[in-house]
Design brief:
Blueprint (H helix, E strand, L loop, with lengths): L22 E2 L10 E6 L5 H8 L5 E3 L11 H18 L2 E11 L3 H10 L6 E5 L4 H5 L13 E5 L4 H10 L4 E5 L5 H9 L9 E6 L6 E2 L2 E6 L20 E2 L15 E2 L16 E5 L2 E2 L3 H10 L4 E9 L2 E10 L9 E8 L4 E7 L1 E8 L6 E5 L2 E6 L3 E8 L2 E6 L2
Parallel strand pairs: 2-3, 2-4, 4-5, 5-6, 6-7, 18-20
Antiparallel strand pairs: 1-3, 8-17, 9-10, 10-19, 11-16, 12-13, 13-14, 13-15, 15-16, 17-18, 19-22, 20-21, 22-23
Length: 401
């Protein structure tokens, strides 16, 4: 079972108190008219980030109090984006300097949120933890980090290797050891990066119409038949998703071992495991730690029969089981790559799997022409949103409703 990984960084991280409001005022005197802000998916971290932001005069934004405790990650990302919009509109926050941040168990959520809504943040910072669960969610697209860089301060063995793999996959990622950074350095790194409403080049990919906004474009309708081999997928390949066929069990991702302790079982569980069991061998090989066990599962490429050795109190029990793989449906994704060329005054758009698209054009780009997948739209004179559709190899346009 994949878990949001939680790692303590001794001497650096403190327990956080839960705050109920969406925007937390810093007790550091009057703030400038527009201030930068940390945006947090986990409101339990607010106190620690507030302490870190105090000296710089930054703000802290968390999802609003109406969010259900068991809300899924997509709902949390949307709630945080709404809280950011409210803080910009009513709280004096600078829209160009909102930085997504998280630590420990929230790190995977930071990577996930950048991929889901890349245009909501100027940059992101992840302290400790691991992005692995975001990868395994099958929604981490490298293209979405093009204009949203992320700094990951890793703290565990193997983090730098994973970071290099992500960079090779195309993520705009910088990795540093956690013990080499202080909060002043993090603030400086973030402050050097700002968000543009209308960057001249954008590139986004998604598997959901609900998360299809990309700065000044928004895909409205997908059609898998509208393939475009010029734009390959930028999906970071998930791990195999392999698991032991034991009815499901939970364990602490930072369990140092030896072995892996069964920390939770589903309701009405009828399998062979019991709470407190420690899996010490898998397929005849010792299980060193929870991290080692998770790596073994991620690297499994096929189903096969295996045996595990379980320590239960003072006894050892051999259990026959099987490594199984999830049945995943092929994902249909849409990608939009667009740019504005100031020399030719042309907006050039290339897309895959998109047949309806909204494009918002700022006044400074006009007059302009537009070309979408080789189909031209001449002499755009009015700024604002244009609704575009491709039908029977013809490009149609109208003002957005």
């Amino acid at each position: 079972m994949e878990l949001w990984l939680r790692r303590g960084l001794t001497g650096l991280l403190a327990c956080a108190a839960l705050f109920g409001q969406s925007v937390l005022e810093l007790p550091s005197g009057p703030a400038p008219a527009r201030t930068p802000a940390f945006a947090l998916l986990d409101s339990a971290d607010a106190a620690q980030w507030q302490a870190w932001a105090k000296d710089s005069g930054w703000r802290v934004i968390v999802p609003g109090p109406g969010l259900a405790a068991d809300a899924g990650m997509d709902a949390r990302v949307k709630a945080l984006a709404a809280a950011v919009e409210d803080a910009v509109r009513n709280g004096g926050v600078d829209a160009a300097r909102v930085y997504l941040a998280g630590r420990g168990a929230s790190v995977a959520a930071v990577f996930y949120a950048v991929s889901r809504m890349p245009d909501a943040w100027a940059a992101a910072f992840a302290l400790g933890g691991s992005p692995q669960q975001a990868i395994d969610a099958g929604s981490l697209f490298a293209a979405n980090f093009t204009n949203t860089p992320i700094l990951w301060a890793g703290a565990a063995e193997g983090d730098q290797t994973l970071a290099e793999k992500l960079k090779d996959a195309g993520l705009n990622l910088e990795w540093r050891p956690a013990n080499s950074l202080n909060i002043a350095g993090v603030v400086q790194w973030l402050a050097e990066r700002t968000r543009e409403d209308f960057p001249m080049a954008i590139d986004c990919e998604t598997n959901s119409v609900a998360f299809a906004r990309c700065y000044w474009t928004q895909a409205v309708k997908f059609d898998p038949a509208e393939r475009n081999d010029v734009l390959p997928t930028t999906l970071v390949k998930p791990s195999s998703g392999a698991a032991l066929d034991l009815g499901g069990f939970g364990y602490k991702a930072d369990d140092p071992g030896p072995g892996v302790t069964v920390a939770s079982l589903p309701g009405k569980y009828s399998g062979p495991l019991k709470l407190g069991d420690r899996i010490v061998e898998l397929d005849g090989k010792p299980v060193g730690s929870a991290r080692e066990y998770a790596e073994t599962m991620r690297n499994a490429t096929g189903e096969k029969d295996v045996a595990i050795l379980v320590e239960r109190a003072k006894e050892r029990k051999r259990i026959e089981t099987r490594i199984v793989l999830p049945r995943r449906q092929p994902a249909v994704t849409a990608r939009v790559r667009a740019k504005y060329d100031p020399a030719s005054k042309e907006i050039q758009i290339v897309s895959r799997t998109v047949t309806a698209l909204r494009v918002t054009i700022p006044p400074r780009w006009l007059p302009a022409t537009l070309n979408w997948n080789g189909l031209p739209l001449e002499e755009i004179q009015t700024p604002g949103c244009i609704a575009l559709t491709i039908e029977n190899e013809l490009l149609h346009s109208e003002k957005c409703p």
